[in-house]
Amino acid sequence: MFEEASPDLTDEQRMILDGANRFVTEICPFEKRREATKAGVTLDRTVWGQMAELGWFGLGLSEEAGGFGGTLEDVALIAETLGRGQVLEPFTMCAVFPARLLVGIGGQTDLIEKIVSGEKLVAVAHSEPDARGDVTRIAVTASPEGGGFRLDGLKSLVVGGDHADVLLVTARLPDGSLGLFRLARHSESVTTEGTRLADWTSGLDLRFTSAIAERIASGDAMAHALAAARDEAVTMLCAECVGAMDGTIQVTAPYISERRQFGVPLSSFQALQHRMADMAADLTIARSAVLRALSFLGAPSAERAAQVAGCKALVQRLGRWTTQQGIQLHGGYGITEEYQVGQYHKRLLVTDAMFGSRDVNLSRYTGHMLSRMMEAAQ
């Protein structure tokens, strides 16, 4: 999660970054993405398998848990590179999020190993249509049924869900506690409706009608594991957004140097030089915010959640502004489906809808900081 020339990168991180850059350039160039979206492809299982072969899905997980070691900073390097490369495959939502969640609850080594190897694609069905960005509001219910549980309710925006082999579903138990349930995507009594999102990735809406599922965790421990995994996933999404900001600048700077108006390059106009400088400054601030969030992932839950929420609110604001400037500096060319810069902005729009909007996350962050100030004043 550093600039490529940063002296703070370790030798191992430079290798990870070099490998991720080669992957984007050789396996997932923008031209391939463009052709895939024209064909309606939102996830390529061959590409997913290649990502698994590189060991990315096990990065940041201990060997005891079924991973390959490494740190979350290493994972963020990959996330940023994939965001810069506009890779369609949902690395954060279908690899990082479910794997970290399963590690947190424990006892799911077999499924973790299948995620790490790429054998199984797992999606977490957590978001709900009536939650209004509040990730703690869970209305799907789970009732005992024979040796399992019966799920009823709606889940929305399950990214990668239409390609998943396994669904991990959060639901409320009769006593009001939270549970995590496992079932196959093609289970009976599960109605699905796929949606192509603005950035050409896919989301799935699920309706459970007495769907039988296996409970794999519940109670306070499960709720804590979910909150931790969610914060880690949000941080990786923010890293992807930083990659999108960086990509916007990398595409825009050469364009305004080559595009001529009134007989001179656009880059010769001081106002546009200042605009590009502001974009670069915002990129640095956003990258620093993600690094700060990464440093808090091991903090107590309340502080961790607040810092991650603050990171998402800030990165979304800076990211949307930066990508909007990229579009404006390209003129009408910037909003076409065939060109990269508009796709970066659409990615920011989609990530803003995940795990609460920037306004919801800003409210969460400011509420926590206000509480701390009031405690300190007493």
UniProtKB/TrEMBL annotation:
<dbReference type="InterPro" id="IPR037069">
    <property type="entry name" value="AcylCoA_DH/ox_N_sf"/>
</dbReference>
<dbReference type="Pfam" id="PF00441">
    <property type="entry name" value="Acyl-CoA_dh_1"/>
</dbReference>
<dbReference type="InterPro" id="IPR009075">
    <property type="entry name" value="AcylCo_DH/oxidase_C"/>
</dbReference>
<dbReference type="GO" id="GO:0003995">
    <property type="term" value="F:acyl-CoA dehydrogenase activity"/>
</dbReference>
<feature type="domain" description="Acyl-CoA dehydrogenase/oxidase N-terminal">
    <location>
        <begin position="10"/>
        <end position="87"/>
    </location>
</feature>
<dbReference type="Pfam" id="PF02771">
    <property type="entry name" value="Acyl-CoA_dh_N"/>
</dbReference>
<feature type="domain" description="Acyl-CoA dehydrogenase/oxidase C-terminal">
    <location>
        <begin position="236"/>
        <end position="363"/>
    </location>
</feature>
<keyword id="KW-0285">Flavoprotein</keyword>
<keyword id="KW-0560">Oxidoreductase</keyword>
<keyword id="KW-0274">FAD</keyword>
<protein>
    <recommendedName>
        <fullName>Acyl-CoA dehydrogenase</fullName>
    </recommendedName>
</protein>
<dbReference type="InterPro" id="IPR036250">
    <property type="entry name" value="AcylCo_DH-like_C"/>
</dbReference>
<dbReference type="InterPro" id="IPR046373">
    <property type="entry name" value="Acyl-CoA_Oxase/DH_mid-dom_sf"/>
</dbReference>
<dbReference type="GO" id="GO:0050660">
    <property type="term" value="F:flavin adenine dinucleotide binding"/>
</dbReference>
<dbReference type="InterPro" id="IPR013786">
    <property type="entry name" value="AcylCoA_DH/ox_N"/>
</dbReference>
<dbReference type="InterPro" id="IPR009100">
    <property type="entry name" value="AcylCoA_DH/oxidase_NM_dom_sf"/>
</dbReference>
<comment type="similarity">
    <text>Belongs to the acyl-CoA dehydrogenase family.</text>
</comment>
